[in-house]
Write a structure and sequence with these properties.
By secondary structure, the chain is α+β, with helices and mostly antiparallel strands. Helix content is 24%, strand content 20%. A hairpin with a 2-residue loop joins strand 14 and strand 15. It is found in: Periplasm.
Length: 567
């Protein structure tokens, strides 16, 4: 089904959703299970989707995106435009006006000073902000008055809706976080676990990688919402157990990310307790290639850093051969069925930004062998290729998940057929997608040769997503391992094109530049090896109303509208 059709279905179902109860807290408790357990409530210190979703219960941006990818105001009075004067005619600034009477959950007023501080927090030169790409091209943020804030750009910005827009870029309270700037940010445990927010729920207790208890925010701007007085978010387990807890046992109302084979889901749904909802946005399962050396023989703090290039993955022929050996059609068949499609792109949508690149869709084992032969990688006595004393032997890591482990097993086999030895490693998802700078097993630390995961961008502008891969955003000890460029890809031409994209106004030309940037990361370099364009899928109980899956923002974007349905 085409993306447009899927989005139209989402709009239709939204219109048919029953109205929420007209009294805050009247529907009691709702239970959500996140099998990848949240490890922080501060999305500025984590790029993990699990943490972003959890934090979005309390922390909100100025504006968000609907399921069809359109902007709508959250804390802002309206969406700035050229017509209403919010966007400057020279496109070098955007001015936001906060809604009147907004309060933090502690009862204090929300002001433009909080917005200015949020920018200072993420853009601090001594800090490590996981969402720094959201502030790409921002020169300054200034308070015009208590309810008006102006974002100034270094160059004209045809699409100024990045900073403070979408669930990944919320406003945090200055009074709570002002002692947490720069290098101090990850040390502020109380603030990071219990943020004061404006959202429909406030944190009551946070147990990292375990359980988060929320209560309805008494200061929430809509006095009739949320319908639930309490929300419990349980973490841990696996995707199958999470889906069963909704679709079979009824223990939970909502299970996030039911990443399971289609036949498994169908069997659970047959019991009639609930359904899996799905929506396509920009989610791509892919392999990141580590262009730096993760060897444990290096001093701590230098592993997987640009100080030490990788011994063989810096060879373009090796990276291309790895991609050529993969049968993406088979991966889709066993892992996702109609909820996935094979892809060669990191950016699969919007259509104008999606490259016509389809070269990788045909598996070519013999071609991969020939490429490695030509590059001088010769099979040794054990069949593993080597050159100059270096063997093509890799550690391949990902999170614990049945579908991902199936993918690992198949890809290991295909790589063995071309003479590449692969050791598989699985990491608990709560750790792999976690924010602990001291852990050796996070996707940012990347103490492996290749790793596999998926994430997405918000809204219909992939520019900030592509900007994550500039040279200055490689994770390292200097930014508390919060850089977004996990492959450590560094290309001066790429960085120049990102800057050019940031000041290009013509929509068609922006799409072409986006395609070029995508191709530089994928088919031109194979620093990122896309596998499957995935739909977002989660299990919903038949007794839970108001749920609208959103693949263009945080998944629980409208939790304030959830309510209980009596069967």
């Amino acid at each position: 089904m085409k993306l447009k059709t899927l989005l139209m279905c989402a709009v239709a179902s939204l219109a048919l959703a029953p109205a929420a109860m007209a009294e805050r807290g009247s529907d009691g408790e709702v239970n959500v299970i996140m099998w990848q357990a949240p490890s922080t409530m501060n999305m500025y210190l984590s790029s993990g989707t699990k943490d972003i979703i959890a934090a979005s219960m309390s922390l909100e941006p100025l504006a968000g995106f609907t399921p069809e990818g359109e902007l709508f105001p959250r804390l802002a009075q309206e969406i700035p435009s050229l017509e209403n004067g919010g966007i400057a005619e020279d496109l070098k600034s955007v001015t936001w006006k906060l809604k009147d009477g907004l309060k933090w959950s502690d009862g204090t007023p929300v002001t433009s000073a909080d917005v200015v501080f949020t920018a200072e927090y993420c853009m601090h030169p001594e800090g490590g902000c996981a969402q720094l790409a959201k502030f790409e091209g921002v020169e300054s943020v200034e308070a015009i008055d208590d309810l008006t804030v102006k974002v100034n750009f270094t160059e004209p910005r045809p699409d100024p809706f990045s900073a403070f827009v979408g669930g990944q870029s919320p406003i945090i309270q200055k009074a709570q976080f002002e002692q947490c700037l720069g290098a101090a940010a990850p040390t502020c445990t109380e603030q990071n676990f219990n943020p004061i927010g404006t959202g429909p729920f406030k944190v009551v207790s946070f147990k990292t990688n375990d359980v988060i208890t929320f209560e309805a925010n008494p200061e929430y701007r809509d006095p009739e919402k949320p319908a639930f007085a309490r929300l419990t978010m349980k973490g841990g387990g696996d995707a199958a157990a999470a889906a069963r807890s909704v679709l079979e046992t009824g223990e939970f109302d909502y299970a996030w990310n039911t990443q399971l084979a289609p036949d498994v889901i169908a069997g659970m749904e047959a019991l009639g307790r609930g359904k899996v909802q799905a929506a396509f946005g920009s989610l791509v399962e892919r392999i990141h290639v580590n262009l730096t050396d993760p060897s444990s023989s290096l001093p701590e703090g230098e592993r997987s850093t640009v100080k030490h290039p990788h011994s063989f993955l810096t060879d373009p022929a090796v990276r291309k051969a790895l991609s050529m050996a993969i049968d993406r059609e088979l991966l889709v068949e066993i892992g996702y069925g109609p909820a996935g499609k094979p892809t060669c792109n990191l950016v699969p949508a919007p259509e104008a930004w999606a490259s016509p690149n389809t070269e990788c869709l045909t598996q070519d084992i013999e071609g991969a062998k020939a490429l490695l032969d030509e590059a001088g990688w010769v099979p040794g006595g054990d069949g593993v290729r080597e050159k100059g004393g270096v063997r093509l032997s890799m550690l391949y890591q990902t999170s614990v998940n049945a579908v991902r482990q199936d993918f690992q097993a198949l890809i290991k086999q295909w790589w063995s057929e071309i003479g590449v030895e692969t050791e598989l490693k699985t990491v608990d998802a709560s750790v792999f997608f976690g924010s602990d700078a001291g852990s050796p097993d996070t996707l940012q630390k990347f103490y492996a040769d290749v790793e596999m995961y998926a994430n997405n961008f918000e809204g219909n502008n992939p520019e900030p997503y592509l900007a994550k891969n500039t040279c200055d955003k490689a994770p390292g000890p200097e930014n508390q391992w919060q850089g977004e460029n996990t492959s450590r890809f560094c290309n001066e031409e790429y960085d120049k094109l990102v800057l050019e994209l940031g000041k290009t106004v013509d929509l068609e030309e922006r799409g072409k530049l986006g395609q070029k940037l995508n191709e530089m990361l994928t088919k031109d370099s194979n620093a990122i090896i896309p596998l499957v364009y995935r739909g977002t899928a989660s299990a919903v109980s038949n007794t839970l109303g108001g749920v609208q899956l959103n693949a263009w923002d945080t998944e629980l974007w409208n939790v304030a509208d959830w309510h209980r349905i009596e069967e």
